[in-house]
Structures are given as C-alpha cells and as structure tokens.
Design a protein that fits this description.
Elements: E1 2-7, H1 20-29, E2 34-37, H2 46-56, E3 60-68, E4 75-79, H3 100-110, E5 113-116, E6 137-141, H4 150-160, E7 163-166, E8 179-183, H5 190-199, E9 202-206
Parallel strand pairs: 1-2, 2-3, 5-6, 6-7
Antiparallel strand pairs: 1-8, 3-4, 4-5, 8-9
C-alpha cells in the first residue's frame, strides 16, 4: 500500500496551488492508495474526511496537519490525531497556539505519529527541542528537501535513534507522490496507519 503523508491544497493552505480534487485524482492516477492532507495549521474536519473517503473509496484520505510551533517557529507533522489546532472558521486563515512540548504531550496522549518535516531546510540545525521530546521520524526526502541535505538528516536521525520517512510535501499536483511510503500491510483507518508507522513497517518509495 502506497501513501503520501504530506500533501497541501489550495483550499486550506495559503501556499497550496492544486485543489483537493486535483490532488486526490493525481494521487490515484499515480497509483497511490492514500494520502494525508497536512494543511499548514488548519486541520480538516472529520466530517470532511469522511465525505472524501466515501466519494473516492477505496482510496484513503488520512488525518494530518502541519503545525508551526511557537517556540522554534519550525514545522511539525502530525498524523492520525483529530482536533490538533485552534483556528477560526474562515478558510486560509489560522492561528496555531502550540508549543512543541505541549504538542508532543498531546499527540502522545492521543496515540498519534510525530515527524519533523524538511529538517535543515533553512539552517544547519534543528531548533525544535527534539532531544527532550523525540519525534517518531524525520522526513528524509521531499520536493522541498535539497538532496545535498539528506546526509545531515540521516546523521541526525541516527543520533536521535529514529527512522526516516519520505513524502512529497506537495503543493502542486505535478509532484504529488514523487516520494511516498510503501506500507508492508494494508491500512484502513488512522489507527491502523499510526500503528504501522510506529512499528516501522514501511519502506521508502518513489515514482519512476
């Protein structure tokens, strides 16, 4: 089962270019089995995801969000936990109120998956306190990760003792699925996905 767990849309990420329909249909065309919409600071309502899952079944759309934490102003990817952010109801406007330690504790309590997306993208260090609050994975490859930084990410992942993951970080359908995870087992629910991610039962995949 192939899934891309870092995808943005025009509707809910200010930097998104492709619509949710375009992103889903491109993912299906590329042979993916599922994606997670990880909008910047804005999480899709569960009713919205249920509607999309019903419409595009058996293709799966999983719960996700990308949070910019207040203490480091770096991004944190959360998979499988609803109601992660506080925001107003106007599309494309949001306000994240999370500090990393509180976000970490909340995700751990709710049984979700935490990854650091595009580490070392803007600096030679990770400012988020990942030593005291160790994430589940570091994103190794995406459209927004310079290949020359991958060695830094791999070295840092080994230092933390965590796995790496890959995803597209797609804002435009043309890169959706370019990097994705190949799950060893089929997953149907957010809980299934988180369980498999935490167990490390996945490989890195890429479109040819």
């Amino acid at each position: 089962m192939r899934v891309d767990l870092h995808v943005h849309t025009y509707e809910y990420s200010a930097c998104g270019i492709s619509t949710e329909r375009e992103q889903i249909e491109m993912a299906i065309t590329c042979g993916l089995d599922g994606i997670a919409f990880t909008e910047h600071g804005f999480q899709r309502a569960q009713s919205d995801l249920e509607r999309l899952n019903k419409k595009y079944a058996p293709f799966k759309i999983f719960t996700g969000v990308e949070v910019n934490v207040l203490d480091s102003y770096e991004d944190v990817l959360v998979i499988g936990v609803p109601d992660m952010t506080e925001y107003n109801n106007r599309p494309r406007e949001y306000k994240s109120l999370w500090k990393y330690d509180k976000l970490y504790e909340f995700v751990r309590k709710k049984g979700g998956f935490i990854a650091i997306p595009h580490p070392f993208r803007f600096a030679d260090e990770v400012k988020t306190n990942v030593f005291d609050f160790i994430p589940d994975a570091l994103e190794l490859k995406s459209y927004n990760i310079d290949p020359s930084r991958e060695y830094l990410i791999e070295k840092f992942a080994k230092k933390l003792g965590v796995k790496t993951m890959v995803a597209s970080d797609s804002h435009h359908k043309h890169v959706t699925g370019m990097h994705h995870l190949v799950m060893h087992n089929a997953v149907q629910t957010d809980a299934d996905l988180v369980r498999e991610l935490l167990s490390g039962r996945y490989d890195h995949g890429a479109l040819q």
